[in-house]
Amino acid sequence: MSVSRKRFRVEQAIMGDMPMPAPVTVEGGEIGPMHREIMAELRSIRAQMALGAHAQRPVTTEATEAAVAREVAEAHALLDTYRAQIEQCEKLKVELDLIHDAINRTKREIAVLHGKSFDGQEMAKVNGELGAVVGGTEEATQQILEAAEAIDQAATALTKVASPEQQKLLAEDVQERVVAIFEACNFQDLTGQRISKVMTTMKFIEQHINAMMDIWGGVDAIKAHAPPIIDTREGDARLLNGPRLDGDVGHASQDDIDAMFD
């Protein structure tokens, strides 16, 4: 049960429910105008308070909505930034995976080379084969030269003797020396076999080096990182390049040399 509260006269006067009282006079003079002025100021303050209460709500709502919209926009921008960073990270991961795979494949190629070509036994075998080629060539050359010298001496002596027996002995000596030359020429077959072994090893190394070059982009990509070739040879060594192979360019032919003496 609600109980109605009695309203004071001041409240009724402020709300305008009752007329303003007539001016009251006292012995010191009239105080009515001052009372009316006070009441007018109270009405003005109450009206301003009521107006401020009604006007403050929309402003607060608009400010809140603007703040929320700004926060949402910032959140979307931050989300877009995160998405872009994630995409970049994914691309970087793909590139790193490719590099990782290339490194592993290169390691396998190097391991194969080290296990089958660059270890001590294999390289010692290659060096031994090349050493045998050089030694066999020198030995065969010495035998051929000695036999040729003996043939020359026998031929000279053959022209000076008249005895058939001596001529026969010298002819037999020449035949023996010729046979020795034929035997010495067998070095070519042995040398070819030894060099074939070395070439097989070199081809094996070349194949795996080419495979590593292909892993990292091929020959053109490797050439971009190759240092410039500087010839540090001096004197005659700078002019001597060994015998020319078929198809080599930049060498003078025999016809060019003969033309210099014409």
Describe the structure.
- It is built from 7 helices and 2 strands.
- The protein has helices spanning 9-15, 32-116, 120-158, 164-184, 187-215, 218-223, 254-260, and strands spanning 25-26, 29-30.
- Strands 1-2 form a two-stranded antiparallel sheet.
- The longest helix is centred in the N-terminal third of the chain and has 85 residues, at 32-116.
- The chain is rod-shaped.
- The protein starts with 8 loop residues before the first helix and ends with a helix.
What layout of secondary structure does this protein have?
Layout: H1 9-15, E1 25-26, E2 29-30, H2 32-116, H3 120-158, H4 164-184, H5 187-215, H6 218-223, H7 254-260
Antiparallel strand pairs: 1-2
Helix pairs in contact: 1-2, 2-5, 3-4, 3-5
Our estimate of the beta-strand percent is under 5%
Content-based structural category: mainly alpha
Q: What is the CA-CA span between the terminal residues? A: 145 Å
Give the radius of gyration.
58 Å
Low-confidence stretches: 23-31
Element-level helix/strand string: HEEHHHHHH
Walk across the major sheet and give the strand order: 1-2
Major pleated sheet: 2 strands, antiparallel
User: What is the number of strand segments?
Assistant: 2
Q: Name the average pLDDT.
A: 75
Which quaternary structure do these chains form? single chain
Could you estimate the helical fraction of the residues in percent?
A: over 70%
Shape: rod-shaped
Number of helices: 7
